[in-house]
From TrEMBL:
Keyword Nucleus on entry: no
GO molecular function, one term: threonine-tRNA ligase activity
Source species of the chain: bioreactor metagenome
Name of the protein described by the UniProt record: Threonine--tRNA ligase
Gene3D superfamilies documented for this protein: Anticodon-binding domain, Bira Bifunctional Protein, Domain 2
Amino acid sequence: MVHRALFGSLERFFGILIEHYAGAFPLWLAPVQARVLPITEKQHEYARKVADELRARDIRVELDDRPESLGSRIKDARNERINYILVAGEREAEAGQIGVRNRREGELGAMSVAQLLEKMQSEVDNKVI
């Protein structure tokens, strides 16, 4: 018997996952786990440093330094269902912290990168859905 399918089993599996989660994947499965947003150009270097620290710990992170307004970049990240939106402002840069928003929990406030990494690693290790 000859059988031909448009999609293989792996493609069907990913199709089922996308449909089940409606694109809002849990942290451990998301292609982009976090996005860092500097408020102004002055914080670009600090935001880049934070993104590099996260990458060094195997967190899939993007840096969004487009010349759009912060509100627009936050809206884009929410529409793309990014798990963690990290905002780098002047106060956060001076304190060595980052403003954290979680897709499920909302605004979490400022925390150190070490605290953020601990929280994210816990979610990944425990396969939180």
